[in-house]
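Hi V.,

Quick status before I head out on leave. The structure for the redesign project is tokenized and pasted below; the design run finished overnight.
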């Protein structure tokens, strides 16, 4: 765990060498076996639609609150209250389920299980961020996991892959940590990469 924290801190500090701000959001991450289960179901689509911009499996996440581009000084004060919030919550039981698309371009997998608990958690995260001076647009929570984006002239690929995922039902899994994530979005022409700034375990009733 100590090594992981050093690695996350290194990413955050190095990001600040390039920029005084970082794009951040708060999210949940499915466990590796749940992600691999979905990746197996997507293998035919990976082969059939190689021109789609597929997200790396290690970057798959469920966004609770997108906080936008923040100064480094605004991010650090969020860490202690997010840690406390996570400790107060017992884990949620969720599943990756089905598929869909936004505007015929963004492919996603849906979320099943304790969706009401997910919405309540997202509401608390957003309230906490605003209480600590982070102002961001309010967007309704549509729980999903983004998988890929099609190219601008392609209005079919995401729709067709989503249709192929309609019957997918993954196993139920338990949320382990609340993640504060930074991204390099908008920092160049390369792919978007995500890294934990920090992550905190949820409480457990045993």
């Amino acid at each position: 765990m100590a090594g992981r924290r050093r690695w996350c801190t290194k990413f955050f500090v190095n990001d600040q060498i390039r920029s005084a701000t970082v794009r951040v959001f708060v999210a949940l991450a499915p466990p590796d076996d749940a992600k691999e289960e979905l990746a197996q179901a997507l293998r035919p689509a990976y082969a059939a639609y190689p021109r789609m911009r597929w997200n790396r499996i290690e970057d798959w996440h469920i966004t609770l609150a997108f906080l936008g581009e923040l100064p480094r000084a605004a991010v650090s004060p969020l860490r202690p209250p997010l840690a406390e919030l996570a400790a107060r919550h017992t884990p949620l039981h969720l599943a990756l389920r089905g598929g869909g698309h936004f505007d015929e371009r963004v492919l996603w997998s849906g979320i099943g299980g304790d969706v009401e608990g997910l919405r309540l958690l997202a509401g608390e995260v957003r309230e906490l961020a605003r209480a600590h001076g982070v102002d961001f647009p309010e967007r309704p929570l549509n729980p999903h996991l983004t998988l890929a984006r099609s190219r601008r002239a392609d209005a079919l690929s995401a729709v067709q892959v989503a249709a192929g995922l309609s019957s997918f039902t993954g196993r139920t899994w338990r949320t382990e940590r609340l993640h504060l994530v930074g991204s390099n979005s908008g920092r160049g022409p390369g792919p978007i990469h995500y890294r934990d700034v920090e992550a905190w375990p949820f409480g457990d009733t045993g």
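Above is the designed sequence. Residues 2-18 form the longest helix (17 residues).

G. will cover questions while I'm gone.

Best,
W.
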